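Quick check before the chapter quiz. The format below is the same one you will see on the exam, so make sure you can read both the input and the output lines.
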Amino acid sequence: MGGSALDVGRAAYRENRWNDAVAELELADRDAVTTPLDLENLATAAFLVGRAADGLDWLARAHEAFLADGDDVAAIRCAAWLGMMLSDLGDHARSGGWFARAERLVDASDEPDADHGFLRVPHGLQALYSGDAEGAERIFREAELRARRAGDADIAALAGLGIGQSRIMLGDLGAGMRLLDEVMVAVTTGELSPEASGIAYCALLQSCRLAFDLRRAQEWTRALDRWCAARPDLIVFTGQCHAHRAALFLAHGAWAEAEAAADEAMQRSARGDHDGIFASAYLRGEVHRLRGEDAAAEASYEAAARTGFEPQPGLALLRLAQGDSATARRMILAAADRLDPSERRVLLPAVVEIELVAGEVAGARGAADELVAFSRSESMPLVDALAESAESAVLLAEGDAEGALAASRRAWVRWRELEVPFEAARSRVLAARCIRASGDEASAAMELDAARAIFEELGAAPGFAVAWPPVTAPDGLSPREVEVLRLVAAGHSNREIAAALYLSEKTIERHLSNIFGKLGLTSRSAATAYAFRHGLAD
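Here is the expected output.
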């Protein structure tokens, strides 16, 4: 009976039927017929189906069994994986203990490169995360050399990922992404274990985000979808897989699909793929923010923050939409200051937007120039579109409506080619502002109507659909305050404005108090007159 379970379990493991593998190999283990390799495979299958605690126990037993058989290399491998898994779970004390045990065994071993370079990988990651990309690359290259010498494809791939990520952090995006693509060749040809393959997919897609490489992200997300679909029992990595899909749906304007994918990512993450929790919660927050559902967005960002990562730039942009530009600015600048250059770039478009609303044109110019320089050094469609959009908004704030109009037109073309409708519509709003500055109200209205149609089709927040307010709103008004002022000028009550903007009446009262204070007004009729004088009323 035990032998039968062992044979079935081994076959299930080879065929990626992880739940069957766990059930049968666990049964065989009870009958004491498993080998150390069977225990290691049982641990791997348990990790893949979300049973991390059981996986850790079985991997520790596999380590001891390999030691008893005199297979030091396999024992070191198990100890190193235990260190990696525990570190990923946040259990740094036990992680350090297993790494120390692995290093002691390496020192005691007569075999050169007994760890196959595995123990260099966490040191490389530590250097990378601390911002020492050059040091990290040296460590990863040493690990790769040892792994290739030992013929260990998994460790060579992990080291290759680290080299590619180091090159990206150093600003060499082209070389970094090519190195990651090379690792993915090993994944697609089936040379790597499931754990290494899943790590490679997720690292590549994270790097695509840092490189603003939307098209590469689309291609590899489709590949990850196929890889996960071929392993229906898989839990680990699938939360991240659905989160990547949600991000692409969000960019391409399929917000209902993005929300559904984020929900699926959250469910998968709760079942064992804890690395997907932040992304799933954050992306739900983004969908709610863009729809104007402030309370739901707030709750989602809070859930994301509980993972230990900052939900930026989404939370800062939510504060901006709520009329609190000071807090938004404080948040986004603090977050940008804490990040290395490769991560900081992701925040630059939000920095430009928030700085302009706060009236800090010089700060917006600095962030826009940084984006433009990035675009010139690594020309990619998404980077170019972001740079053109930022440049257009800043030029308009600086008084160069003609230059801003040309930049907004170029941005619109790029966003349309990338099939990112929300940003394309924002570019048309920028164009309308530029045209309005020349006095051509009719042409400006046509641009705004085109943008409004897209916002309404997407289900964007009413403030976008009505007509996105000028970035440089007069007299220090925030975008949300301009939205409220427009609706006041249209004759709506506080209750009606609250319903239109999905806010509470108390929040509307606070916005009105801010508006009256900034403009030195005391009545709704005076505010209405102001709105008409400044072209803020439809």
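If your answer matched, good. The mean pLDDT is 89.
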